[in-house]
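Budget justification, computational time. The allocation requested in the original proposal was used primarily to generate structure tokens for proteins on the priority list. As evidence of use, we reproduce two of the resulting records. The first is shown immediately below.
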Amino acid sequence: MKSNYKSYDVAKSSDRIKEITNSSNTNYEEVDEIPSRDSLTFTNGFYVKKTGALFVDIRKSSELSGAHKRPRLAKIYRSYISEVVALLNSNTDCKEINIVGDAVSGIFNAQYKHQIYSMVSTAAQINSLMKIINYHFRKNGIVEIKAGIGVAFGRALMIKAGYSGSGINEVVWMGEVVNRASKLCNEANKDTTSPVLINEDVYNNLEDKEDREFFNYNYLLDCYQGNIINIVMDEWYEENCK
């Protein structure tokens, strides 16, 4: 969100807080799928009953500044972020994409099992993408990177938050599904975990037994993990990146 300077008034700030906290007509409607952003106001919200969340983050990103100076750091982040966003944006069920630092997340409609499968397929594409990114990094003397991917399914609260009247606002997603996907992402692709971690609800909603066989249970994290890939992208890599 771009800022647009307005002087701060503590009394008006207190009035805004009072208006929000004293409001008695806030409406939080339960819905099956993600509604349009345009239907959000500063006094309503939506509980989306069946939501998917996918988070991606670079492992040990703080160490990259020690390996490269800023121009190459910019190349790392631009390459990684642009293509992760491209994959998320290519999934018709992905309705929200957010970027915070090197963390990229997507919020998905997940009413049906085929939508949950599609979200996991996007996670596999992102995992395969990392091989292609690292191929180009190697060719240009840039340090290779690893990414962790966390996927969860559950219920989420969608609200509009920001500075009312300023034009500065954003859609905010809250709830266990978002927290869980973020935490799984933080644990994924570390020394003892696979690149993709999914919660139990995602695992149980994979329609085919064959799909579930790509994952094994992680007792310490109470989730399922797998090194899933996209076959088409991996075949392209083998043909073009050797």
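The second record produced under the same allocation is shown here.
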Amino acid sequence: MTVENSSAQRSATDVSAVERALALGPQQLTGEYRIDLATGTWWWSDEAFLVHGFAPGEVVPTTELVLAHKHPEDRERVRRILDAGRRTGAPFSSVHRIMDARGRERTIAVVGQGRRDEEGDLVEIVGYFVDISAVVAERSDERATEQIAAAAATRGTIEQAKGVIAATYAIDPEEAFVLLRATSNDRNVRLREVAQLVVRTATASGEHCREYLDAVLGPRAA
């Protein structure tokens, strides 16, 4: 079967499937694959070789090779997905990790579905590998940045609350932190939330600050 014939027979469902995969990020390396179900023979486009870290034509793609490159924690899940696709021909997709030929971990999206002949017999699986490693790394970096920023903001609030308590009760900052933490434990409320309450109370209560902080911090502060 030629590549041209396979492309002509590709359905609209195939196109929408790869569009969904590509929507995960711009300009992702995308390789096409086919599996002849009668012989078990795989065909890879040049890009499919590159996704797996090979030069085009460097190896002969097989089911065993494909599964060998899956991350050990993802391998059985991918095997089950491929087996189900071969049995039913139903559209499938998976996002999982691979170890490429150069030993690098990559995250790829795989989409595929069966193609039937004129008699309705399932004859091959066609689909795409999409390397989404850059998108996953970018999103991980964004989450890490958000977490760092949130931690910094929390720490700033706690330091501000320590300062308020230390000034109000004429104690040193470490004693103020012990009082803050004890209140958090006693009330089973996050330390950050207690600190925010202390800062809000001090800001709003003016000359009655000590009285209101006594109520917030409880008998330990009295």
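A brief technical remark on that second record: The chain has two domains: 3-131, 141-220.
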